[in-house]
Design a protein that fits this description.
Strand content: under 5%
Oligomer: single chain
Radius of gyration: 28 Å
Helix content: 55-70%
Strand order of the largest sheet: 1-3-2
Shape: globular
Length: 577
């Protein structure tokens, strides 16, 4: 018997019930006929539903096979990028640029293959949430988003992007070293033009700069960023002014009076490296599945949850080297935060169904930055951490033996407007980001020419932070982002700082004795809470706002950062605000 569609079964049943003969039959046979007719509809409806579910499930399995292959090739690209910045000899720059371009072309072919397109087309028409569940539906959602983006970009465009990023990076390294803006300017002009071309092709419904922002912050726009930054600037400017007035009137009382915590040769690089490694492991970074190396610009690369690599840099300014490790301990503090996110993504355990799939990725760069900044700003720059860490510093650096945990806490929380973004304190840091946001807007709108960037930059630094810029190397050439074509990335740092405040407050509500645990060196509860609520969630939700609502009960709130900094620095500097 041919399968009867559900709509056809309903029509047949309706006709029978309405016909005189049908009434006779129902009277004669009781409910047996009506039950048979209804059963016919149910059986055939169930069969059709099962057929649809089987078709969607099969398409999903095939889609995942192709997505995992693309993810592995992306991992190879990332290894080449890490090697280029950490290990590769400078003379190999041209060859590496061509290698990356060739690989980008191969990946592009995979991302735009006809069979992948057919699967995307089939799944686009299906109710994947109902058939597959929320997690698998999120995989399909992002696969469609990625495919649509790639299909609007030509293979030539993808290859040109990869090749230009290689040339621009090495030109930037040389230009910064030699303080030579004119040497880098043509590459930046070329990059702005190419990224405008890519934006117009891949996201034609958006403005060019909005499209670049959307690469890193899905759902975010230039207009909303302007609102967030206006609110932040209004909230932080009075705080910064009050701090600087207090320092001018009373002197800077932060830090220790002995000078033991000031930059000096006593902060031996090898000892800093050993301490950074020790702290990174204590925070939870798994060195069996990770590395800690040195590079000119600290960063974290996650090729897979089982292979995550941190780089940092060290100098006599121990705060820069040690803090950076915690963000990229502070450089290490920064980067460990990124690395814990990468190691906590789906796919780190055997037989994880979501290994190599879009749902395992970070939801946005702002969310990723929130994890680094939570460890750097909320933990490393907090009093409880220094109750734990001070004895370690005494052990590695005996010249600090007389310094108390309060001395260390005050030393890492000094406010002083400066030239370099990555060395900025947490009060002035957002001002550096707002400056870069305004610069990028002007470049993409055509209001600012590349040749005029140094003069624009120097004036903005003076107007915003009252800082004189002595050289382009310490000014507009200090960051790698534009050489990498990462326009729209800078706002993610401050969005991340806002989210970090919101996530940390939620963690404290969930773990009432959290700061006592940090003071005793027990970081496991915080790491596990972050893994459960953020790292392993990946891109399940369609926006950072949704993730924030689920985890904290609120959308992005810039005043969370203003409240945190005002409370903290009013106490540190004895301000009446």
């Amino acid at each position: 018997m041919a399968r009867v569609p559900h709509w056809r079964a309903v029509a047949i049943a309706t006709a029978i019930f309405q016909a005189p003969a049908g009434a006779f039959m129902l009277k004669t046979l009781g409910f047996r006929t009506s039950r048979a007719v209804v059963a016919l509809g149910v059986i055939n409806s169930s069969s059709a539903s099962a057929s649809i579910k089987e078709s969607v499930t099969n398409a999903y399995v095939k889609l995942c096979d192709r997505l995992r292959e693309i993810d592995r090739l992306n991992g190879v690209q990332a290894v080449l990028g890490w090697d280029e910045q950490v290990m590769m000899p400078s003379g190999a720059a041209k060859a590496r640029s061509m290698q990356k371009s060739a690989l980008a072309g191969a990946v592009f072919e995979k991302r735009t293959a006809a069979d992948l397109g057919a699967l995307v087309s089939e799944l686009r028409r299906a109710d994947t949430t109902d058939v597959l569940g929320a997690e698998k539906a999120a995989v399909v959602r992002d696969a469609i988003r990625d495919f649509d983006h790639e299909m609007r970009k030509s293979k030539d465009m993808a290859a040109r992007e990869a090749e230009l990023e290689g040339r621009a990076y090495h030109a930037w390294v040389k230009a910064r070293k030699e303080n030579d803006w004119p040497a880098f300017a043509p590459l930046l002009s070329e990059m702005v033009h190419l990224k405008s071309e890519v934006a117009a092709a891949t996201r034609p419904e958006m403005g060019v700069y909005d499209a670049n922002i959307d690469v890193f912050e899905r759902g975010m726009s230039r207009e909303r960023l302007a609102e967030v930054f206006t609110e932040l600037k209004a909230g932080l400017t009075p705080l910064l002014s009050a701090i600087l007035d207090k320092i001018k009137a009373d002197g800077d009382s932060s830090g220790d009076s002995s000078g033991a915590l000031s930059p000096s040769p006593s902060w031996e690089v090898k000892k800093q490296e050993a301490l950074c490694r020790q702290i990174a492991e204590k925070l939870g970074f798994d060195l069996e599945h990770g590395r800690l190396d040195v590079s000119p610009h600290p960063f974290t690369s996650g090729f897979h949850p089982t292979d995550v690599r941190i780089t940092t840099r060290y100098s006599e300014n121990w705060i820069e080297g040690i803090a950076g490790t915690v963000h990229e301990v502070c450089n290490v503090a920064t980067q460990v935060g990124h690395a814990l996110y990468e190691q906590g993504r789906r796919g780190g355990s055997d037989n994880d169904d979501f290994d190599g799939l879009p749902i395992s990725r970070a939801l946005s760069m702002g969310v990723h930055e929130s994890q680094s900044l939570l460890w750097e700003r909320m933990v490393f720059l907090g009093r409880p951490f220094w109750k734990f860490a001070t004895p370690l510093f005494h052990e590695h650096f005996p010249h600090t033996a007389e310094c108390t945990s309060e001395d260390f806490y005050r030393a890492v929380n000094k406010v002083s407007p400066g030239l370099i973004r990555v060395n900025a304190d947490e009060v002035t840091y957002p001002m550096h980001i707002i400056l870069r946001f305004e610069l990028e807007q002007a470049l993409f709108s055509g209001d600012l020419k590349v040749a005029d960037v140094p003069a624009w930059w120097n004036k903005a630094m003076k107007d915003t932070l009252d800082v004189e810029v002595p050289s382009d190397a310490q000014g507009c050439l200090q960051d790698v982002h534009h050489a990498a074509g990462a326009f729209g990335y800078f706002p993610s740092y401050t969005l991340g700082a806002i989210m970090a405040c919101q996530f940390y407050e939620a963690a404290k509500r969930a773990i009432p004795d959290l700061e006592d645990k940090i003071a005793s060196g027990d970081f496991k509860p915080l790491k596990e809470w972050l893994n459960q609520n953020i790292h392993s969630i990946g891109s399940l939700y369609d926006s950072p706002d949704k993730l924030l609502e689920v985890v904290t009960g609120e959308r992005l709130d810039p005043m969370a950062l203003v409240r945190h900094l005002t409370r903290k620095y009013s106490e540190l500097y004895k301000l009446q605000l």
